[in-house]
Design brief:
The protein is α/β, with parallel strands linked by helices. It has 14 helices and 17 strands.
C-alpha cells in the first residue's frame, strides 16, 4: 500500500524508544501553579480574579481578551497568591495568575457531568468548547472555538485529526491512541456534528501500527470516519503537509485550512473537545513527555497546566549529571531553555534532555551550495538564498524569495552539511517582517 505523504522532508532519529511504551502517569503538583495570561495565538486573556481570592478546580480565572483569544481555567483549588509578571518558556516575563494549591482539588459544581452531544445544538457545542479554553495543543495554540467557526461551514468537507506526531522523541499523542482511542473518535464525532458535509479522517504515521489498529477497529462501522496511514517522515504533521498528504490540496501562508475545505486539529485537541462537550471538563491538563538520554527515568505524564517544569523533571528521576541541553518540545521545533523554573502552559508538550549538544559539537562553515536544503524543504523554497537575505537583514528580498512560506520545521538546518543556523535566521526574519507589517497597519 502506498502511504500518503508530501514532497521533501527528512528522517531524523525519532527517539521514541525512550517513552513509547511508558503508560501515562498522573502527576499532582506540589508547589504553586503559574498561569500566564498569554498561552495562545491572539490577544492575552484578562484576569477576572484578584489576589487572595479562593478558586475551585475548573473555575474560569481569566476571560478571552478578544475574538481570537481564549479563557484560562484553574487546574487546582486554592488561593490566588499574586497576579504578576512571571518567567515563561519564551524567556519573557508575562503577566500571570499565581495560585497556591491547597491540595484538595475541590471542583466547581457540575465538573465531569456527562452530556449527550447528539442532543446539543451546534451553538451549544461551540459555547462549550469556548468556555473550556481549548486551543491547538499541537504547538500553535490557535483558539479552537474560532477554528470551528469558519465563514462558510458548508464548504468544509474534511475534518482531519493530526495523529502524525512526527516531532522526534514525543510520544504523548501515541500514548493517547493506545490508552484512550475512544475519546479521540468521540471528539471527532462532536466536530463532525458541526459540519454536515464533512468526512472525518484520522491521519497517523505508519510507525505507530498499534495506534492505527486501535483506531481502525473503533471506526470500522463509522460511515463518516476513516483512518489514513501516513509515510513516516518529518515534518509529516505540519498542517500544510498533512492537508496535502490526505487531500492533495495545497495552501500557502496567505490561506487558512478552511480555504481548502479542511479543519485540522491534533489528537490531544480532539480529546479536549470530547472532554469539554461530553464530560463538562475544561482544558486543565496536558499529556506531557519527559524524555531523552539526559533524564534518569523518561516518562509520560498527565500534568496540571501551571505545573513547574522543574517538578516534572524531578518526577522523572531528575536530570542526569552532565546533561548538556534541555529543550521544551522536541529537537526539531522545540526551544532550548536555560531554566526549568517555568510553567507548563496549554501549548507545552515535552521536556527533552540530552547529554550531548550537537550545535555545540559542530562548527558552522561556509555554504557549499550543495542544494540539500532545497531538496528537503517541504515548502519548495530556497533556504540558501533566503539565508543570504537574512545575513543582510534584507526583509524585502526575504519576502520576494517566499520566505514567509517557511514553516520553521528545521529540515534545512538538519540536512545542512555546513551546520548553518538556517531555521533560527528564518524565524527571526519572519518575526521582523510581521513586525514591519504591523507598523504599517
Amino acid at each position: 500500500m502506498r502511504l500518503a505523504t508530501f514532497k521533501g522532508g527528512v528522517h531524523p532519529d525519532d527517539g521514541k524508544r525512550f517513552t513509547k511504551d511508558k503508560p501515562v502517569q498522573t502527576y499532582l503538583p506540589k508547589g504553586e501553579l503559574v498561569f500566564p495570561l498569554s498561552q495562545h495565538i491572539g490577544a492575552p486573556a484578562k484576569a477576572i480574579v484578584q489576589k487572595k481570592d479562593q478558586v475551585l478546580m475548573g473555575q474560569t480565572i481569566a476571560q478571552a481578551g478578544g475574538f481570537v483569544s481564549a479563557d484560562i481555567v484553574s487546574s487546582v483549588s486554592g488561593t490566588v497568591k499574586a497576579i504578576e509578571p512571571r518567567l515563561t518558556l519564551s524567556g519573557a516575563k508575562i503577566d500571570s495568575i499565581v495560585i497556591e494549591n491547597d491540595g484538595n482539588y475541590t471542583p466547581v459544581e457540575g465538573l465531569g457531568r456527562y452530556r449527550d452531544y447528539t442532543k446539543m445544538t451546534k451553538q451549544e457545542i461551540l459555547d462549550a468548547v469556548k468556555a473550556a479554553g481549548i486551543v491547538g495543543l499541537g504547538g500553535a495554540g490557535f483558539p479552537t472555538h474560532v477554528k470551528l467557526m469558519p465563514k462558510e461551514p458548508d464548504k468544509i468537507d474534511y475534518i482531519i485529526v493530526n495523529g502524525a506526531e512526527c516531532e522526534p522523541y514525543l510520544t504523548s499523542d501515541y500514548r493517547m491512541m493506545m490508552e484512550c482511542p475512544e475519546q479521540i473518535v468521540s471528539g471527532l464525532k462532536v466536530m463532525l456534528r458541526l459540519f454536515d458535509n464533512a468526512q472525518g479522517v484520522i491521519a497517523v504515521e505508519a510507525n505507530k501500527p498499534m495506534g492505527i489498529k486501535n483506531l481502525e477497529e473503533l471506526v470500522k462501522n463509522e460511515e463518516r470516519i476513516k483512518v489514513v496511514p501516513l509515510k513516516t517522515k518529518y515534518p509529516q504533521g505540519a498542517e500544510r503537509n498533512l492537508i496535502y498528504a490526505v487531500t492533495g490540496r495545497k495552501i500557502n501562508s496567505t490561506k487558512l485550512p478552511a480555504d481548502a475545505g479542511c479543519i485540522v486539529d491534533n489528537v490531544d485537541t480532539v480529546i479536549a473537545i470530547h472532554m469539554a462537550v461530553c464530560e463538562s471538563t475544561p482544558l486543565m491538563r496536558r499529556i506531557f513527555t519527559v524524555t531523552g538520554d539526559g533524564i534518569n527515568n523518561p516518562s509520560n505524564f498527565q500534568v496540571k497546566i501551571g505545573t513547574s517544569y522543574a517538578e516534572l523533571a524531578e518526577a522523572a528521576g531528575g536530570l542526569r549529571e552532565g546533561v548538556k541541553k534541555v529543550i521544551s518540545g522536541g529537537p526539531m521545533m522545540g526551544m532550548s531553555i536555560p531554566t526549568l523554573d517555568v510553567p507548563v502552559v496549554k501549548t507545552s508538550s515535552a521536556l527533552t534532555c540530552f547529554m550531548k549538544d550537537d550545535v555545540e559539537r559542530f562548527e558552522e562553515t561556509a555554504c557549499i551550495r550543495c542544494g540539500k536544503c532545497v531538496s528537503v524543504c517541504p515548502s519548495n523554497i530556497v533556504p540558501q538564498m533566503m539565508m543570504d537575505a537574512a545575513m543582510k537583514y534584507d526583509t524585502q528580498k526575504f519576502v520576494a524569495l517566499n520566505g514567509m512560506e517557511c514553516c520553521e520545521c528545521g529540515s534545512c538546518t538538519f540536512a545542512c552539511p555546513a551546520r548553518r543556523p538556517l531555521t533560527q535566521a528564518f524565524r527571526q526574519m519572519r518575526q521582523a517582517v510581521i513586525a514591519e507589517r504591523r507598523k504599517k497597519g
